[in-house]
């Protein structure tokens, strides 16, 4: 007798066409790959819907046959899971392959409406075709990542539109039972303000669909920013690890008072220069982590210190921005430790150009070269928040350096600073070809998670192989989410286990 999974695929082939279903073992192996310590999680099949109606059909048949699904849009969640499902055997719904249209760009009201497969590179190209009067916010990660997937995982960028969830408006969602919900004003039939009026009528729903498994988003509005005529980045290096607390004290007032429109990055040496280097095993005779003397050598080689601070100003002309540049120079140079690098100088440097690109809404592949640091590109992100208080920031630095060092890994971290908190982007890079090191990377992540949670600093986004554990650390919320899940998805067809919700 055919299994329920086989019956599911047969019904899908009949309803959606054979091209929408792939169960080829090579495809499954490819979709199961991720860069994480927990290793591959192979799905049972991959589906390629071409419309919202097809997503509805998939969800309804999943209910009929008791199959669980895993939605992915562009599937570039590097260091967080790629396209791989949270549990092996789930069926990947790859929305990106065939639902990849920019549905609309409204140049007057500065927004776009996109399907799940629209990538940052694609949107950048389209905005360019229209003369770059509008600018999107992008990540510093894969240009083939996309607006919908990144937003739904609470991803972020660096310009004033950095908060991708905050800048999204009006979702079309296929619920686990197959109905279509339109959020914001979209719930009102014929509404002309779906992509303009974010909060709509009644409880605000959009948040239910980020980092969750309560629906599959098939369309989204995203707000765009008028492109500033001139963008001028600024850079400062600081020589010592211990300067970090002072830097945070210098950055906070700039953001609280809105002096700098972008987020301000405080990037550790190896995060900044790691795109240009690989781990020097020959110099350490195979030992890890990297000794401080070698780290200092690398800093000197690339003209950096222990920290790189960067941000950007926007304005009508170079002359208009010059006073702001002078003001920021005076602010940082007063510390007596900073060295200034101008925009023009930074444009000559591949590693500094990454930051200029991210402040300019321009996708870049260059930061992905960080993944070459150790063989096999093993990578997992640890993403707590650090308050914008120098003393706490220094404690966090010490905690992270200790735990990473004890596990044989480097401190490769970028603090992306707003007025009150910075998102501490820790990239744990490990040799994925070495089973022992892979497991050690997993233990390191868990040690960081425990230490930060115990100290009162939980994470905001988790790789698939740590989502259940991270959610289990929270109180009351897991139970509330579980009740919501049962109400909206009684059969548990959409990604059970995602972000620990089942
Ligand atoms: C060097 C480097 C730099 C990076 N820089 C950044 C950065 O600056 N900012 C940042 O945010 N990230 C960054 N990343 C992490 C990651 O690569 C990006 O966030 C990437 O954009 C996420 O992949 P994606 O956009 O293809 O989304 P996807 O992988 O398609 O989706 C992400 C998750 O959202 C869920 N999802 C996707 N589509 C749907 C849907 N339609 N309905 C319901 N759920 C869905 C899935 O669970 C999926 O796991 C970086 C990674 C690296 C390696």
UniProtKB/TrEMBL annotation:
EC supergroup of this enzyme: oxidoreductase
Molecular function terms, GO-annotated: D-lactate dehydrogenase (cytochrome) activity; D-lactate dehydrogenase (NAD+) activity; FAD binding
Biological process annotations from GO: lactate catabolic process
Protein's UniProt keywords contain Transferase: no
InterPro entries, per the entry: Cytok_DH_C_sf (IPR016170), FAD-bd_PCMH (IPR016166), FAD-bd_PCMH-like_sf (IPR036318), FAD-bd_PCMH_sub1 (IPR016167), FAD-bd_PCMH_sub2 (IPR016169), FAD-linked_Oxase-like_C (IPR016164), Oxid_FAD_bind_N (IPR006094), Vanillyl_alc_oxidase_C-sub2 (IPR016171)
Enzyme Commission (EC) number: 1.17.99.1
Residues of the FAD-binding PCMH-type domain: 39-227
Keyword entries, A-Z: FAD, Flavoprotein, Oxidoreductase
PROSITE patterns: FAD_PCMH (PS51387)
Protein name: 4-cresol dehydrogenase [hydroxylating] flavoprotein subunit
Organism of derivation: Stigmatella aurantiaca (strain DW4/3-1)
């Amino acid at each position: 007798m055919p299994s329920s999974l086989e019956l599911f695929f047969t019904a899908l082939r009949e309803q959606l066409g054979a091209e929408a279903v792939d169960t080829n073992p090579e495809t499954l192996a490819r979709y199961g790959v991720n860069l994480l310590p927990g290793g591959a999680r192979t799905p049972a099949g991959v589906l390629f819907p071409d419309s919202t109606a097809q997503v509805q059909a998939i969800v309804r048949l999943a209910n009929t046959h008791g199959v669980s699904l895993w939605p992915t849009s562009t599937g570039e969640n590097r260091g967080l899971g790629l396209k791989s499902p949270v549990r092996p055997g789930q069926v990947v719904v790859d929305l990106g392959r065939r639902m990849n249209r920019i549905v609309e760009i409204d140049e007057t009201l500065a927004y776009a409406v996109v399907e799940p497969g629209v990538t940052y590179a694609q949107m950048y190209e389209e905005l360019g075709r229209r003369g770059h009067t509008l600018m999107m916010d992008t990540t510093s990660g894969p240009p083939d990542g996309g607006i919908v997937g990144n937003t739904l995982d609470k991803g972020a960028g660096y310009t004033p539109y950095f908060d991708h969830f905050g800048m999204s408006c009006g979702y079309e969602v296929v619920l686990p039972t197959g109905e279509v919900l339109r959020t914001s004003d979209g719930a009102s039939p014929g509404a002309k303000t779906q992509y303009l009026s974010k909060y709509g009528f009644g409880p605000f729903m959009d948040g239910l669909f980020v980092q969750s498994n309560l629906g599959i988003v098939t369309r989204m509005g995203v707000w765009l920013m008028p492109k500033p005529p001139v963008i001028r980045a600024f850079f400062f290096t600081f020589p010592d690890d211990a300067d970090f607390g002072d830097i945070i004290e210098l950055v906070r007032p700039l953001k609280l008072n809105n002096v700098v429109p972008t987020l301000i990055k405080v990037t550790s040496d190896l995060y900044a220069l790691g795109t240009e280097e690989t781990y020097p095993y020959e110099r350490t005779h195979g030992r890890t982590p990297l000794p401080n003397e070698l780290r200092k050598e690398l800093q000197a080689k690339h003209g950096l210190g222990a920290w790189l601070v960067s941000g950007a100003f926007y304005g009508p002309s170079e002359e208009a921005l010059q006073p702001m540049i002078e003001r920021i120079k005076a602010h940082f140079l007063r510390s007596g430790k900073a060295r200034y690098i101008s925009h023009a100088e930074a444009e000559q440097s591949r590693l500094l150009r990454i930051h200029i690109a991210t402040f300019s809404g321009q996708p870049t592949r260059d930061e992905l070269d960080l993944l070459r640091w150790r063989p096999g590109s093993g990578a997992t992100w640890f993403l707590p928040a650090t308050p914008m208080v120098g003393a706490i920031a220094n404690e966090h630095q010490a905690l992270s350096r200790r735990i990473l060092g004890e596990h044989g890994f480097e401190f490769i971290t970028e603090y992306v600073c707003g007025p009150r908190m910075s998102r501490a982007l820790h990239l744990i890079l490990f040799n994925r070809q070495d089973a022992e090191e892979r497991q050690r990377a997993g233990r390191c992540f868990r040690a960081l998670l425990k230490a930060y949670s115990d100290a009162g600093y939980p994470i905001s986004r988790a790789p698939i192989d740590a989502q259940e554990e991270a959610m289990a650390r929270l109180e009351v919320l897991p139970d509330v989410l579980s009740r919501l899940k049962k109400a909206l998805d009684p059969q548990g067809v959409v990604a059970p286990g995602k972000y620990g919700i089942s």
